[in-house]
UniProtKB/TrEMBL annotation, chain B:
The lineage of its organism: Bacteria, Bacillati, Actinomycetota, Actinomycetes, Micrococcales. Residues 412-435 are annotated as: Disordered. Residues 415-426 have a biased composition (Basic and acidic residues). Belongs to the DNA polymerase type-Y family. Keywords: DNA damage. InterPro entries: DNA/RNA_pol_sf (IPR043502), Rev_trsase/Diguanyl_cyclase (IPR043128), SulA_CellDiv_inhibitor (IPR050356), UmuC (IPR001126). Signal peptide: none annotated. The keyword Repressor does not apply. GO terms for biological process: DNA repair. This is DNA polymerase Y family protein. The keyword DNA damage applies. PANTHER family: BLR3025 PROTEIN (PTHR35369:SF2), BLR3025 PROTEIN-RELATED (PTHR35369).
Length: 232, 534
């Protein structure tokens, strides 16, 4: 896989995700698969959307506009196509032409030649494709490995915050992870998102966001072990 | 100091008046019989009433409750000033076909310079007769005509037709030069200048004749310009001239099909040329159309009408697409036409100046290409397949998500409804969900199951008490049982308790051992998954 060499190919990305994504952020012309979390996919859209990019969601009728707005996606620049039917490929290709980020439900089957054409179009137009669901052909796969909710007890309270361990595969096959809270995924505009060289430094340790979490307990798995919380 | 134009002879004017025009327009619009007791209501008060309502004692300015008390079978409609103008347009058009130079003073009242028509039709009475006949032909029977020197005197003459016998033509002609004499007996109130009227009364002047007898220069010195104009009106020397309107360009397009077309692709193909001509005519007038009204007439007399908006402006292909979508519809209730299309009527609903929409030298940026791309997808999938989302008010998450087809305004005019939607969203909505919004809101409800530690289904009784703590749940019918890690509920949602169709639901939040959270609903002892926090 040819890596992007120019920093200008990087799109504004939520800082918490920029750290673990290959190339230090969402790259135009690349494709990403999000395994099991719609929230994570929305967070990927939030960065470009907060800077005025148009986004499109194809084939996801369950997409929650309210959660999207909560994560900082501009609804006025968000297009929803809940049911592309049998024309998945032509609709996706048409939208790759005009919008910056396209979020799609991973297709059941896509012929390699069709994928190559779509990929070429992505490169040419400088758009990013995010698929919901595992998809081997994507450049990078993200997923929520662990998740813990706070605020809910045994019949008391309500969901308040969530902490997640997010993993991302690199093109080399190496896995990176970060511990983030729900607030870290909000699309506050990262002004240094374009051309930030320091962001592309090697980041295998935890970042400032996760440092606070991880510093208390380096063996993070025990921290994320779900346990019954007292209603405190 | 401004001067009053020193014309010594007022323009000979024919004025035709349709009494109670707002009522007539509303009766015609809603196809009500002419003897309906109808009132038009503006801000809770009667704005206009039909003769039948007036006979029952309804008057302008009454509160609507009072009017309903006086007249049993009263029909009340909201007053719509744009309807007055819209309904009057065919009347003006009909008169313009027989005599040019019509000035619309207000809907229901028109002035015409009578010199030309009287020569053409032989006499002033003859010209008036032609107007009456023409308007009767389009179904307007109650028309009054006054002919006098100047619009003011002519209006008083038209109103004086009340005193004629029923079998006479509703026409009063004041001979040339007779206006001062005709007006002299009128009270000062017809000048419609309350301050001046009160002052003149206190000076002992009670009629227009008394007022006109004063010297013009004295009136001017004492009452200024306003007084001088009123004095000229009272003297029958109206300074107003008849200013004919320029008929607006005809921008509608009508396409008739003989034999009727039964296939959409036939229609789309034939409409291409008509749509091109329609848009071409707009271009020539220097206009672009941002909303178009499409009416489809069928052989059996059905009409399918719809207003289509456009995010930018219509070109010919867009118009053809709208006609096609209107026929295809999203469901049968959209058109429900049963026979072939005989006529397509395109009316430009909102037109704007072309200069306001001109492309910049280097194009108008990315939004233009967005629009083209989305229009292409709409062409592939249909109008309702490309959506934008707006958050509205509501308790259930699915109610809060409102999807609007690309290019349509969010129900009603843009800015107003956007504000009301924000206002509605910020209402308290008891029972709405606290905390972060779930990322997946299921478009169609999915059945779920929740059981306690012994495997019995969990339920909520009528007092809102839980039968047992939930221990396991499955978020889909074919899903495995997940152990409940933490939970909260039941949170009652009582929707429209005053309505028999209202619902009572209980909402639960559940987190399973893997750390994913779910939002479940319990209604009528059945569990549903509302949303997932994935």
């Amino acid at each position: 896989m040819q890596a992007a060499t120019l920093d200008s190919r990087r799109m504004p990305t939520v800082p918490a995700l920029a750290r673990i994504l290959p190339g230090g952020g969402l790259q135009s012309g690349s494709s990403y698969a999000v395994r099991n979390s719609c929230t994570l996919a929305m967070a990927l859209l939030a960065g470009p959307s907060a800077t005025g990019a148009w986004c499109c969601v194809i084939g996801v009728p369950d997409f929650s506009a309210e959660a999207a707005q909560g994560l900082g996606i501009n609804l006025e620049r968000l297009i929803l196509i809940p049911d592309p039917g049998s024309q998945w490929l032509s609709v996706t290709a048409a939208l790759v032409d005009v919008v910056s980020v396209v979020l799609v439900r991973a297709p059941d089957h896509l012929a390699p030649s069709e994928w190559a054409r779509l990929k070429a179009r992505l490169r040419q137009r400088g758009a990013a494709l995010i698929t919901l669901g595992a998809w081997k052909q994507s450049d990078s796969t993200l997923g929520v490995a662990e998740s813990a909710w706070e605020g809910l007890g045994a019949g008391t309270g309500h969901l308040r915050t969530r902490r997640m361990k997010i993993t991302a595969t690199q093109p080399s096959g190496r896995l990176r992870h970060a511990y983030v809270g729900l607030d870290d995924l909000q699309g506050t505009t990262d002004s240094t998102g374009f051309g930030d060289h320091s962001a592309s430094r090697s980041f295998d340790s935890v970042g400032p966001v996760a440092a606070a979490v991880a510093a208390t307990d380096r063996s993070a798995t025990s921290l994320f072990e779900p346990r019954l919380m007292k209603s405190s | 100091m401004p001067t009053v134009p020193a014309t010594t002879v007022a323009t000979r004017t024919m004025l035709f008046w349709c009494p109670d025009w707002p009522v007539t327009a509303a009766l015609r619009e809603h196809a009500l019989p002419a003897d309906t007791a109808l009132v038009l209501v503006d801000r809770g008060e009667v704005f206009a009433c039909s003769p039948a309502a007036r006979q029952d004692g309804v008057r302008r300015g009454l509160r609507i409750r009072e009017a309903q008390a006086r007249s049993a079978g009263l029909v009340s409609l909201a007053y719509d000033s744009s309807l007055d103008e819209r309904a009057f347009e065919p009347v003006i058009a009909a008169v313009e076909t027989i005599m040019p130079g019509v000035q619309v003073i207000r809907p229901g009242l028109c002035a015409i310079r009578v010199k030309g028509p009287s020569r053409y039709y032989g006499s002033e009475e003859g010209a008036a007769g032609v107007v009456i006949d023409t308007l009767a032909a389009i179904g307007l029977t109650d028309v009054r005509i006054g002919i006098a020197d100047g619009p003011f005197a002519a209006e008083q003459a038209a109103r004086a037709t009340d005193q004629l016998d029923d079998d006479d033509a509703p026409l009063v002609v004041i001979p040339s030069g007779g206006s001062p004499w005709f007006l002299s007996s009128y009270p000062l109130e017809v000048l419609d200048q309350p301050k001046l009227t009160v002052l003149l009364r206190r000076l002992g002047i009670r009629s227009l004749g008394d007022f006109a007898a004063l010297r013009a220069s004295d009136v001017r010195n004492r009452f200024g310009l306003e007084g001088a104009i009123a004095h000229r009106q009272a003297s029958g020397l109206d300074h107003h001239d008849v200013v004919a309107r320029t008929p607006p360009p005809h921008l509608d397009a009508v396409a008739d099909f003989e034999p009727p077309l039964v296939r959409i692709d036939q229609l789309a193909f034939t409409m291409r040329a008509h749509a091109g001509a329609f848009i071409g005519a707009l271009r020539e007038a220097g206009l672009v159309c941002t909303a178009v009204h499409v009416a489809l007439h069928t052989e059996s007399g059905e009409v399918s009408e719809r207003r289509w908006q456009h995010p930018r402006w219509f070109d010919a292909d867009d118009v053809v697409d709208r006609v096609r979508w209107q026929l295809q519809g999203t469901n049968a209730s959209d058109h429900g036409l049963t026979s072939g299309i005989t006529r397509v009527h395109l009316v430009p609903d909102v037109v704007e100046d072309l200069a306001d929409h001109a492309d910049g030298l280097w194009g108008t940026g990315p939004d233009e290409s967005i629009h083209h791309g989305l229009a292409r997808v709409q062409g592939m999938l249909g109008h309702g397949a490309v959506l934008t989302a707006v958050i509205a008010g509501g308790r259930l998450l699915a109610d809060r998500r409102v999807l609007i087809p690309w290019g349509d305004a969010p129900t009603g005019s843009d800015r107003v409804s956007r504000q009301t939607s924000v206002k509605e969203r910020n209402q308290p909505w008891p029972g709405r969900l606290p905390g972060p919004a779930p990322a997946t809101v299921f478009a169609e409800r999915r059945a779920a199951a929740v059981v306690d530690s012994r495997g019995n289904p969990v339920d909520v009784d009528r007092r809102g008490l839980l039968s047992a703590d939930p221990a396991f749940f499955s978020a889909a019918s074919d899903d495995e049982r997940r152990p409940v890690h933490s939970w909260a509920g039941p949170w009652p949602i009582s929707e429209r308790w005053w309505d028999p169709a209202g619902r009572v639901l209980h909402r639960f939040q559940l987190v399973d051992r893997s750390g994913s959270a779910w939002l479940l609903l319990l209604e009528d002892h059945a569990w549903w998954v509302e949303a997932g926090y994935d």
